Amino acid sequence: MKNTLVIAALASGAIVTLAHCSKQSPAAETSVGSPSALAASDRAALVERGRHLVESVGMCTDCHAPRLPSGEFDKSRYLMGSELPFRPTIPMPFVPVAPPLAGLPTLPTDEVAVEFMMTGKRPSGAPVMPPMPQIRLKRDEAEAVVAYLRSLKPAA
Question: Which of 40, 11, 16, 46 has its CA nearest to residue 28?
């Protein structure tokens, strides 16, 4: 049970950090517009910010990227979904497989994806299932994450 609680706490802490602790300039507080409608240099900066939020702050790879037997991430299937290496120790709703994030195949438009990143609710309005915490990003953070994830090649 301690392992499950530690993992849940780590996942929740990563999302809280992602949602509330990134430093912003006043200009960054406003919406940067549709991630697909930016100039190339602005888009590159947006994608890089999204990469930082996904990889270094949210730690999305921990659940959404499979690992090799050595414990290293399988770079050939980066953010393409993975079976979770843990289970709850008590009965509870739980999804044992993290869905793919590369290309955002389950979120049909950028606006739907941004809304999901801001509310933690799926397009149906249902919340995400544990162990995934409900995300609460600011719009500019969500747009950066969506731009980065859309830039990745989805699983074939």
Answer: 46
